[in-house]
Amino acid sequence: MVNKDPEGRAMQFDPAYLKIAPGDSVKFVATDKGHNSETILGMVPEGAETWKGKINEEIVVAFDVEGIYGYKCSPHFALGMVGIIQVGDSTENVDSAETVKLPGKAKPRMAELVAQVGDGATAPAD
């Protein structure tokens, strides 16, 4: 969770798109202050758990259900601070994720991320 990503975009998750395996966990780190990570309702697979981290909180989320998970930073949602995690190869819920109403810059940013789904991008190596 950063105020500026490597491409110079303000208020971003870096990386904003991840593809992981079922059973993997993701750690959200508030590198810059004033951010959180939480589920965008309507953008998780059926039967999947949602999450809501507190501002400035490092949170680890485990992903057991395959599909597309959309998430946001609550204070910077309208500024386009959103991300997608693809768990496994399933893109079954991507259509429902695309129909969720998003405010301001979140809509075009999410469209960029949805375009990456299925392209084979993966989590960065530690």
TrEMBL record:
Keywords: Copper, Electron transport, Metal-binding, Periplasm, Transport. It comes from the Bacteria. Its cofactor is Cu cation. The keyword Phosphoprotein does not apply. InterPro entries: Amicyanin/Pseudoazurin (IPR002386), BlueCu_1 (IPR000923), BlueCu_1_BS (IPR028871), Copper_blue_Plastocyanin (IPR001235), Cupredoxin (IPR008972), Pseudoazurin (IPR012745). It is found in: Periplasm. Pfam families: Copper-bind. Residues 7-87 form the Blue (type 1) copper domain. Its main location: periplasm. PROSITE patterns: COPPER_BLUE (PS00196). NCBIfam families: pseudoazurin. This is Pseudoazurin. It comes from Pseudorhizobium halotolerans.
